[in-house]
Each structure stands twice: as C-alpha cells, then as structure tokens.
Known about the structure:
Layout: E1 11-15, H1 19-32, E2 36-40, H2 43-52, E3 57-61, H3 69-77, E4 84-89, H4 93-105, E5 110-115, H5 120-127, H6 148-157, E6 160-169, E7 175-186, E8 190-192, H7 194-203, H8 207-227, E9 233-237, H9 240-243, H10 247-258, E10 266-271, H11 272-277, H12 279-291, E11 295-301, H13 308-313, E12 318-321, H14 323-328, H15 333-348, E13 352-355, H16 361-369, E14 374-376, H17 386-393
Parallel strand pairs: 1-2, 1-3, 3-4, 4-5, 7-9, 9-10, 10-11, 11-12, 12-13, 13-14
Antiparallel strand pairs: 6-7, 6-14, 7-8
Amino acid sequence: MPNSPYPVGLRALVVDDDPVMLEIISALLSDAGLRLLETADKGELALERLAAHPFDLLICDLNMPGMDGIRLLSHVAALSRRPAVVLLSGEDSRVLDVSRQFAEAKGLTILGVLEKPVDLQSLTTVLGRYRPAEGRSLQDAPDVAIDGDGIRGGIDGGALHLAYQPKLELGKRSFVGAEALLRWQDPKFGAVPPSDVVRAAENAGLVDLLTLAVLTQAVADRATLMRSGIDINLAFNVSMHNLHNLSIIDRMSEIVAAADDRPDRYTLEVTETHLMKEPVHVIEALIRSRLRGFKVAIDDYGTGAATMQFLMQLPSTELKIDRSFVAAGPRSEQGRVLLQSAIELGLSLGQTVTVEGVETDREDRLARELGGHLGQGYLYGRPMELGELIAWACTHPVGAPANSD
C-alpha cells in the first residue's frame, strides 16, 4: 500500500443516507490515501460520532431524511473543534452554491462541493486543499488550555511569530502587501491554532497585549523587508476587544514611530461580522486609527449584514471580498452577479477592493475582469515565513505599497 499523502492520524467522517454511496466514497477515500475512516448513515449518528471524538474531515451529503446536511452543518459550526468540510449532493448547482455560502458564513472551512456521482480525481483535487491549520490534525492532539500566564510567557519566550500571505496587484501582478498571520509554538502543546491563542488571550484579558506583540513583530519584520528593498503594506487583524480600548491605537502609533516607520504602511483588519455587533464602538476606534495614519480594511465582506449606508459611515480604505463570493463567481451566473455587486460596492465607496482566497485561474480572471484591485490566495502564494517571503519576492516585482496615498 502506498504511503498516504495526508498527515498521520487524520480522521475522516463520511455522512450519507445511501449505503451504496457510503461504500463508494469510503473506497475512493481509501484509494486517495486516507486511512482512518468512519461512516454515518444519518445526521444524528454523525453528531454522536463527532461528540465522541473530533474529526479532521467531514464529507457530508446535503439531502438526507431526518437531520439533513444543512442542519448537521449548523451543529458542526457550534463545535469547539470543527472539521474541514466537503459537501456532496445531487442537487443543482444553485443549491450547492448557496449551501456552501451558508456553511462558510457559519465559519466552517469548505474544501469543496462535489456533485454526485463522485469520481476519484474530483475527490482527490478537493482533498488536496486540506491544510492542518484549517481542519486540525486532531487524532493525537492534546487538549490545549493556555491561560494568562501561558500567553505572557509565550510572548516573552518567543512562542509568537508571524507568517505572511502575499497580496498582488491584479493588473500588473506586482507584489504590494501581505497579511500577517499569527503562529504560536507553545513549549508544552507544540503548534497551537491561532483561534485558540486569541480566545485564551481574550478570556485572560490580554488580547491588547497579544495584538501589540503582533504589531511589534510585524514592525520588526517590515524593517527586515525594507533592508531587502521590499517596501510593502502589512495587514494584521484586530479583535473587538481591542476596539473597546481606544488607548491601544495610541500604543500602536508609538510602536510604529519608535521604529521610525510610517503608520500608512500598516492596515488594521476588522471582520464585517464584528462591525455589526457594536457599530458605535467600532466606528470611533476606526476613526482614531485613521487619524493616527493607519489604513483600515473591512475583512470577510459578505459574511455579515452590513448595509451600504453603514459602510458609507466607516473610515475604511479597503474592502476584502470573502472567499465564498470569489469561489462562487465562476461557477454560476448568480455567483458572478454576487461577486460583481460586492466589487462594485467597494469601487463606489472609493475603497481598494481585495478578493480573498483566490485559488484558480478562473477566479483570478473574473476578479480582474470585474475590476478588483488586489488578490490574495493560494494561487499567488501560501502563508510563508519571513525568509520565504523575501525569497518569493525575488521572483515577483515589488510595486507601490497597497493602499498607499
């Protein structure tokens, strides 16, 4: 038997009410190299399996009696450890597209949508998108319980570092920016998912400390980039908890100024969902950020419920279109209309429009055709360490920093 291309211990759960389909998909998964497979012939049984032990992959039919796939996904989204998902269905493409958007809006990682009958090539292609950081390798993972001391000690002890995913100008293909992504190598637990680190920091009242540590590292990394002749914008995420403390904006300014750098080379990313929870606090914090010279991006646009009127009130400089819109665009006319509307909204508001999660040439072509400015996704470059980013930049022309005035 050939070696599996997937991480050791990776577990997959297949859910379908058709026993023949369960057998076929299980055989295909085995042929694809997955070893730890379990099946369930109804949604209720799948939930029992998921509660008994976590899975890395969930391959789920949509149309099932009793608890259908949509209800199952709603329950899965509430789990503390959620698998990456592959959707299966014999329904038309419109139902599949909407189902994918629903699942992604719930915060699930959707590797792909497969129409029945499923073939090995299509299944292998979708499984090739699996990344342990998305659907974590859980089989032998210990329960992670980082506390406040762990956050402080990790920051002081070097557990925190950043990976960078490049952003390209879609027309000229020039390298203009990168998103800084939190990575955490705990001495006790090993690699800890960023979401667990952020949650622990929030619970301990240390999210400001964590965010400032991220910015401090990003400033140091940008100085290294500058010494290599790479002047780009760096973006990083801020939490709702950060935006409640207006003084953190002053601390950010001090960190950038201490490095003799420019605040307009940094973009604060706030998700659309967070914007809608407490808009008054958010608007005040974002105004202060802009007054200090920082750029502001609305992240994951399309996953929340922000109206055009509300977006017009925001002092943002960039609108990042969620991956679900980008993926749906080339697949159907309805998807194209949704993506076009999102891009045109950003353009009408004078924003830099970034399309997120671009994975295919078709998605890239359509984003350019519809007027998107910047692209970010695996097609251009995966998240990489600073040294890798510098090497990557050697083969990509560096343009003016994203969102530069």
